[in-house]
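step 3/5: co-fold with manganese (II) ion
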Amino acid sequence: MAVQTNKTTLNKYLELEQPDGKVMAEYLWIDGSGEGIRSKCRTLNFIPKSPKDCPIWNFDGSSTAQAEGSNSDMYLHPCAIFRDPFRGGENRLILCDVYKYNNKPAETNKRHTCADVMEKAKEHKPWFGIEQEYSLLDYDSYPLGWPKNGYPGPQGPYYCGVGANRVHGRDIVEAHYRACLYAGVDICGCNAEVMPAQWEFQVGPTEGIAMGDHLWVARYILHRVAEDFGVVVTLDPKPMTGDWNGAGAHTNYSTKAMRETGGLAVIEEAIEKLSKHHVRHIKAYDPNEGKDNERRLTGLHETSSIHDFSAGVANRGASIRIPRQVAEDGYGYLEDRRPSSNCDPYAVTEVIIRTTILE
Ligand code: ADP
Ligand code: MN
Ligand code: MN
Ligand code: MN
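step 4/5: write tokens
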């Protein structure tokens, strides 16, 4: 059972006025799993305007699978600021990347090299849009709303569904969307997914390094909102085996040239380059170098096989899909359908830029 405290009692304290100039700053970072998010809070005596205003901080890396106990101090370098939708007011969420005792980026710090690559490619104005699929679980790790000791009816009525027998957990989806807008995350849509209790939200189009920043903060907000409702979020790419869809993080991508007249030819060139680096991309598309995605990319349930590269217009069984509208307009973007729901968006966007622009 999830421990549920009384929110009415909590509100008594939250109504206390917060002194002017005192900001609660929640520092966020990615832990040693490459998938989990941790956070801790401190007071700032000023309102930070940019990440550079925020002090570098530290944490115990031996408790997050990021360091040995004997040399456990790790550094948090603030890199993006959002409004805090949980505390409101002048309080802030401070996204950080992690450095070791010797000031080298931690193994799970994928932002460091991604930022480098985005800087080199900036004149191409790369835009990304990620479709984050996820599943809601009850406290017993079984999908939310599924009959205990059984299964719901087969997939079909649930995608974009309406009604208490079709969707589970919409309160969380609604609360998350509003909280993201408040925070300043570029959320652009959401929908119920094919498997009951599975949902998706989209972030984008977002340029360069900001894609990863916004998606990580959107994920943090999702975990926190679900926590308030006593529900668990999983980004596992295949939470239920059998005839149930998995969860991905389709990554939509364009450069300035792709978005202009004649852009389809540029999109096709990029696909040609992507076709030569399938294995490298699969390795970058989940935190376990393809092991997680192996369960999802079977060639069934609207996925391509993990072993083959394919591309096609409007083809949801391909690695890369060119949306029908893009083929008709002759410009736009491509969709890489391979990234796993638990991917690190910094690693995904970095390898896409390396393959299609820098090499
Ligand atoms: P799907 O039809 O695959 O379900 P969605 O509507 O869920 O597509 O998501 C589309 C995504 O594509 C959004 O994240 C959006 O921001 C992104 N997108 C739209 N235009 C562009 C573009 N020109 N470049 C990159 N991403 C884009
Ligand atoms: Mn979608
Ligand atoms: Mn989807
Ligand atoms: Mn998609």
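step 5/5: annotate
Residues 127-129, 131, 188-189, 202, 204-205, 250, 252-254, 259, 332-333, 335 surround adenosine-5'-diphosphate (ligand 1) (CB under 6 Å).
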